[in-house]
Design a protein that fits this description.
By secondary structure, the protein is an alpha+beta fold. The chain contains five helices and eight strands; from the N terminus they run ββαββααβαβββα. Strand 1 and strand 2 form a beta hairpin.
């Protein structure tokens, strides 16, 4: 059992001590709830740590608070390099899937913080300072206090998808190259036309 004990000394008008007031409160339920929360956090951190998917935690201002080892591997930056910053690297160019610029305010984590709504499977293309390209599929889940309507942070999982994008690109190129042969308008377009001159027979 857990108890919280408070002791107060009562004095008379002259300041002389008279007696003690002792209050004992049973806080067993609260302590058990706190321990359960700590145990849950340990399990949560253990799961996050071994995930192949990268996971970032942003504060209410959008700054990076922490991330798991997979996030460091995917981005190629350590947590110490990214903690407290708004971006993985300010020098990187972030684009949408179609190659158009991806404004800061419209990126998944910022949109989730602003709207309070989760963002799912958003594809982003990042061109690093060395010219290499990183494709990411990202989600963003806003975090709230017990009864608060405004997000206090956001969890943002991300996945590196270079193989998927390369495969899709190869399929697209291959389709464009083979479509004129594989999809003729009619069967006659696949057969060469032979033209001969008509020579009349002698009478």
């Amino acid at each position: 059992i857990w108890v919280n004990r408070t002791v107060s000394l009562v004095h008379d008008a002259s300041g002389n001590p008279l007696y003690f007031i002792r209050i004992i409160e049973d806080i067993t339920e609260r302590k058990e709830a706190e321990q359960a929360l700590r145990d849950s956090e340990v399990r949560y951190r253990s799961v996050i740590a071994v995930m192949a998917e990268g996971v970032f935690l942003h504060d209410k201002g959008g700054k990076i608070v922490t991330c798991n080892a997979s996030a460091e591997r995917i981005i190629g930056r350590s947590l110490d390099e990214m903690r407290g910053k708004l971006y993985f690297d300010p020098g990187w160019h972030v684009m949408r899937e179609d190659g158009s610029p991806f404004p800061d305010a419209e990126r998944p984590a910022n949109t989730a913080l602003r709207s309070g709504q989760p963002q799912s499977n958003v594809l982003m293309k990042m061109r690093k300072s060395d010219g290499s390209v990183l494709w990411l599929a990202t989600n963003a889940q806003p975090l709230f206090e017990a009864a608060g309507p405004v997000p206090i942070g956001v969890v943002s999982p991300l996945t590196d998808i270079p193989h998927r994008k390369r495969a899709a690109s190869r399929h697209s190129v291959g389709h464009r190259r083979t479509r004129p042969v594989a999809a003729p308008r009619t069967h006659r377009h696949c057969v060469p036309t032979v033209v001969t001159d008509h020579v009349p027979h002698p009478p």
